[in-house]
Amino acid sequence: MNMGSVEIVRIGEATEGRLREVSDLHRASIPSGFMTSLGQAALSAVYRAIIRSPHAFMLVALQDDRCVGFLAASLSTRRVQFDIMATSWRQLAPAVLRQGVRPRVWLGIAELITYTAKSRQRIATPAAEILNFCVDPSCRGAGIGGELLREMVREYARRGTREITIVTGAGQREAQRLYEREGARRVGEATVHAGSSSFVYVLPIAEDGSSQAHA
Fold first, then answer.
1. What is the pLDDT of residues 106-158, one digit of tens each?
2. What distance in Å separates the CA atoms of residue 179 and residue 201, rounded to the nearest whole number?
3. For the chain, how far is it from start to end, CA to CA, in angstroms?
4. DSSP notation for the chain
5. Which residues pair with 11 in a beta bridge?
6. Cβ atoms 92, 45 nearer than 8 A
7. For residue 75, how many C-alpha atoms fall within 13 Å in the half-sphere facing its CB?
């Protein structure tokens, strides 16, 4: 799909350069996150595993062949977690060990391991889910996020998925407005990371590849 000079594509394999772009964008968008603290090599390994997983897919927004946004999505987050650990442990283990015995490190690991259960605590939500969604800060406001989201809906429809879970920080109003414009309904709250609250949404997907707002 083309959007002016921006192209939205699904990638089934990624070069090291593309993985570096995605991981750098992740680090710029989530500078204080646990995964960011593990470094570029570990992040690249995680995104390589997501791209290769049969239970996930990755969309990227390219402008002059430069990644200015991406969206990683799962058909089953629990299965994707297993895929990541099975294929990326050689890169992740040294990155974790370099962090030492700081409590924040082990808290971050525990949050990742228990993420799926936490986000669905007391809330029945679909297994399919947005894993991460970033747009280059210099490109925000140009509609790239909306195009990534709508292409994600079409990809889910092609795979027969009829609704997905979205978990976003309680303070991320811009993201919440985007999801709500596309027809997502808020179904509850969850504490995914210690000390911060997140809102849980469910986005219905029509068979023709449109979200509820465009059905």
1. 445 545 555 555 555 556 789 999 999 999 988 888 889 999 999 999 999 99
2. 8
3. 19
4. -EETTEEEEEESS--HHHHHHHHHHHHHHSTT-HHHHT-HHHHHHHHHHHHH-TTEEEEEEEETTEEEEEEEEES-HHHHHHHHHHHHHHHHHHHHHHTTT-HHHHHHHHHHHTHHHHHTTT----S-EEEEEEE-GGGTTSSHHHHHHHHHHHHHHHTT--EEEEEEETT-HHHHHHHHHTT-EEEEEEEEETTEEEEEEEEEB-TTS-BGGG-
5. 58
6. yes
7. 15
Task: For residues 105 and 25, give the distance between their C-alpha atoms in angstroms, rounded to a whole number.
Answer: 22
Tracing tokens 């799926």 back to the chain, one arrives at 116
Q: Does domain 2-214 have CATH number 3.40.50.720?
A: no
What is the pLDDT, as a whole number, of residue 129? 94
- Residues 188 and 123: their CA atoms lie apart, in Å, by 7
- Please state, in angstroms and rounded to a whole number, the distance separating the CA atoms of residues 78 and 142: 33
